């Protein structure tokens, strides 16, 4: 019995490297709908902050009810000689405070959202009532620009400041002067704040600071005020960095701090008094640090214009984005009582404020799935997680899906006999008609088959992708039958032109370059004696030679780039 004629299996090209995003990348790319706001005075965006959660809820309660106040719906942006207050919900400008005599450097809103403290280059610290914008308190004890000011999360009347006069000062709102002056830095102090409560304590007693002397210091306000009230006090712990410290960020546990010095971020253990890790990911100085995802992620911004996200387990980069100008400040703005990430606010040297917002609804479901997948990865149960997800996906299919597959694997029972009929089935009758080049190949007319596939008739199947795969399928079949040289022989300049044109177009595709090289080498071997006899043939060979030289140059540049990246990774 004659075997049925089956169509020639189409050649499959190698798969391109997957561009599928990880759940972490999908999460950070869900911050969309960018809003670009220029500074009114085209001044750099110096600082971005949001009221922190109080560590002592009893200190921040509403007067109408004895329940903790809701998180304030605002965040601050400091630029030029003004502090702008934006709504977290609408991203609109709520208020602007411009009562400064010099460039404003930093602003901090108290946890109840009623009071704002701000500092400027004149060494002045002012406390404002947010609703009326009235000045409640003014301190001028700093002699140089004040770069940092922050309210205590535990005491609503306490705040800390850091200045270029090399001092860190602790303030109390009812007092006319600072409560304590912390002395120990030998250069400008550019960042300071309160350490979070460790182990669920009250917090607000430990402070941190970082300066251009390369020192990160931890201070204890209880020891300082008891030993020398109103006077100088020494630090209880000091870390020495190799470069000026631009920013210091404590983690939520209160036992670890991150210090940004030049293009590195050091992870410091306050309990053990030693560094744990050094993050080397930026090319230029890191200027800003912020927490995200409930303290499980750290976001950094640098003068290279890159914002990068790191996980706090292995300190690996899991996300990031590029901005058109050097980043001076950033903040991951949260909303709601559960403090979910809502906006990524980035301040640039050019005076642009970028606010990107995370979509809600479907994105929340994906975030929960991302957390489950990351936890399964950490626990070594990723396979179980994948099986569980596949089972859930199968359960989502309707009853019609199971009904469609019912009986597909039936092979007969007992004395039943299943006969495989040789007569054409319905699917065989609907089989696609054989292409002309397939018929020529089956009949052994190899040259005619090659001409037919390179110059297909005007049919609906002659799309560029289909024609390319059909040509590759035919050439592969000719190679397997050792008939490639036969199909290329006996041609003139007219019939040879489509073959060389296909080689010229396809040799830039790395997936088919081996076939292009084999076809080109056969043509040069067969027709090398005809060079110089045809202007058309000589022109096609010259064009192919130029294209090959271009691809060789690209390959050399790729290897050079790979070598440079390898040296950077080693260093």
From TrEMBL:
GO terms for cellular component: nucleolus. Gene3D superfamilies: YVTN repeat-like/Quinoprotein amine dehydrogenase. Its main location: nucleus. WD repeats lie at residues 139-181, 182-220, 279-311. Residues 42-71 are annotated as: Disordered. Residues 42-68 have a biased composition (Low complexity). One of its GO terms (biological process) is rRNA processing. Pfam families: UTP15_C, WD40. Keywords: Nucleus, Repeat, rRNA processing, WD repeat. Residues 410-568 form the U3 small nucleolar RNA-associated protein 15 C-terminal domain. It is found in: Nucleus, Nucleolus. PANTHER family: U3 SMALL NUCLEOLAR RNA-ASSOCIATED PROTEIN 15 HOMOLOG, UTP15 U3 SMALL NUCLEOLAR RNA-ASSOCIATED PROTEIN 15 FAMILY MEMBER. This is U3 small nucleolar RNA-associated protein. The lineage of its organism: Eukaryota, Fungi, Dikarya, Ascomycota, Pezizomycotina.
